């Protein structure tokens, strides 16, 4: 339909949805509950996704991947999340699916050849190290420093919240190579590396957290880590720009994950609403419970449409900042809203682990905070779309 609007996925995209749904359904809610309670990485699930060839979805074909776009990647993560795997499932594979894009786009041929095929076959686990305790959302204030010494860099610093660091062999690490005070533009002077988490120089300590406990999030202390120049991604000083390129697709992936949780929460709520009888009637007959679910359905459907538009724009090489940010904002809100309402509808049982909605509630709450908070999304829309003065 050239020039017109189409709301249909292609046959291939439908096939991806269906295949991932089938694969993910082999790991039921009970599996995820157990992994979450035991704080255990979902290795069986990760291996099954790798065996199915899904980890290489967006990696170029020359490195063994399928070279697909963000639309397909969001479908995959939405289905994983929707299976009940929620954020535990999504975070186990999230970085392999799209997080290597800075390496794909800016890495040397050697670095790509060394790492990308191993991402595809599942052998190489990576984590992403941006956040620091002293910088918060103001990434320009990071202080982890990479000092050039001959053909190596000496890296010292501290990262926080680094997901999957405990299970990863390598880290995609954002550092400063010029101190903040010495750059003219505050986002200059940052350099990206893909390097090994050498246990002799990197101390990793898991953070006790509210949910998504099958995948660790960690404090990472880096002490005189010597990194060969070959592990640098692209040019020195351009690391922030490389990360920035990946922000919109990252927001879309998170949106898809939130959407998936919202959908599964709603399904569980409808089931329980029909089954559970109190005062001689199914509880779902009460408008006080039914209307919030219908409202959540409408919000999820609307949020999904913005997400589809955002992924379409990105895959067609068009600007998508407004849509990517809006999709993340609305999907995170709708996903959490649905999980909260599903929990409420389950009454006391909602608070138990048995019905899984409490897990969805905890995990969907995260999407309003990370990888970027709802407030920062509104800052973007206010400033860059509405044209209001920068508020911070
Ligand atoms: C479970 C989990 C996993 C994570 N995984 C990773 C990971 O793998 N790698 C990684 O690098 N990071 C990771 N993070 C970090 C995450 O990206 C940050 O927590 C997030 O970006 C928020 O930053 P902050 O925690 O430093 O909040 P802060 O910057 O301290 O902000 C605190 C609050 O203030 C608000 N705020 C700050 N400035 C403004 C402003 N100007 N206007 C309006 N509001 C403002 C924020 O929105 C937020 O609500 C993870 C976090 C969690 C919780």
TrEMBL record:
Keywords from the UniProt entry: FAD, Flavoprotein, Oxidoreductase
InterPro entries assigned: Acyl-CoA_dehydrogenase, Acyl-CoA_DH_CS, Acyl-CoA_Oxase/DH_mid-dom, Acyl-CoA_Oxase/DH_mid-dom_sf, AcylCo_DH-like_C, AcylCo_DH/oxidase_C, AcylCoA_DH/ox_N, AcylCoA_DH/ox_N_sf
Hydrolase found in the keyword field: no
Acyl-CoA dehydrogenase/oxidase N-terminal domain location: 10-123
Start and end residues of each Acyl-CoA dehydrogenase/oxidase C-terminal domain: 237-385
Ranges for domain Acyl-CoA oxidase/dehydrogenase middle: 127-224
Coiled-coil region list: none
Origin: domain of life: Bacteria
Cofactor names: FAD
Presence of keyword Flavoprotein: yes
Family statement: Belongs to the acyl-CoA dehydrogenase family.
Name assigned to this protein: Acyl-CoA dehydrogenase
Organism for this UniProt entry: Mycolicibacterium novocastrense
């Amino acid at each position: 339909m050239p020039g017109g609007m189409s709301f249909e996925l292609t046959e291939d995209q439908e096939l991806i949805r269906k295949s991932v749904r089938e694969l993910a359904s082999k790991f039921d809610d009970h599996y995820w509950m157990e992994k979450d309670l035991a704080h255990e990485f979902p290795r069986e699930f990760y291996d099954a996704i790798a065996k199915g060839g899904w980890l290489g979805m967006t990696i170029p074909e020359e490195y063994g991947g399928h070279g697909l776009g963000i639309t397909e990647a969001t479908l995959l993560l939405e289905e994983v999340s929707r299976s009940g795997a929620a954020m535990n499932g999504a975070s186990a594979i999230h970085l392999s699916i799209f997080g290597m894009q800075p390496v794909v786009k800016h890495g040397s041929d050697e670095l790509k050849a060394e790492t990308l095929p191993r991402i595809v076959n599942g052998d190489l686990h990576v984590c992403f190290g941006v956040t620091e305790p002293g910088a918060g959302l103001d990434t320009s204030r990071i202080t982890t420093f990479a000092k050039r010494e001959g053909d190596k860099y000496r890296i010292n610093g501290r990262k926080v919240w680094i997901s999957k660091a405990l299970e990863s062999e390598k880290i995609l690490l954002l550092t400063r190579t010029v101190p903040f005070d010495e750059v003219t533009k505050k986002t200059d002077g940052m350099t990206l590396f893909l390097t090994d988490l050498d246990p002799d120089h990197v101390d990793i300590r898991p953070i006790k957290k509210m949910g998504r406990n099958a995948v660790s999030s960690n404090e990472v202390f880096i002490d005189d880590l010597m990194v060969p120049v070959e592990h640098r991604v692209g040019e020195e000083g351009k690391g922030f720009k490389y990360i920035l390129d990946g922000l919109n697709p990252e927001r879309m992936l998170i949106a898809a994950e939130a959407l998936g949780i919202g959908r599964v929460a709603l399904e569980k709520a409808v089931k329980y609403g029909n089954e559970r009888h109190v005062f001689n009637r199914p509880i779902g007959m009460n408008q006080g419970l039914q209307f919030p679910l219908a409202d959540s359905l409408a919000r999820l459907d609307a949020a999904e449409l913005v997400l589809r538009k955002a992924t379409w724009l990105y895959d067609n090489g068009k600007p998508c900042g407004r849509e990517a940010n809006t999709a993340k904002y609305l999907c995170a809100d709708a996903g959490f809203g649905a999980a909260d309402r599903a929990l409420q509808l389950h009454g006391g049982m909602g608070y138990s682990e048995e019905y899984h909605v409490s897990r969805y509630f905890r995990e969907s709450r995260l999407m309003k905070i990370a990888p970027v908070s709802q407030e920062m999304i509104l800052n973007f829309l206010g400033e860059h779309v509405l044209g209001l003065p920068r508020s911070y």
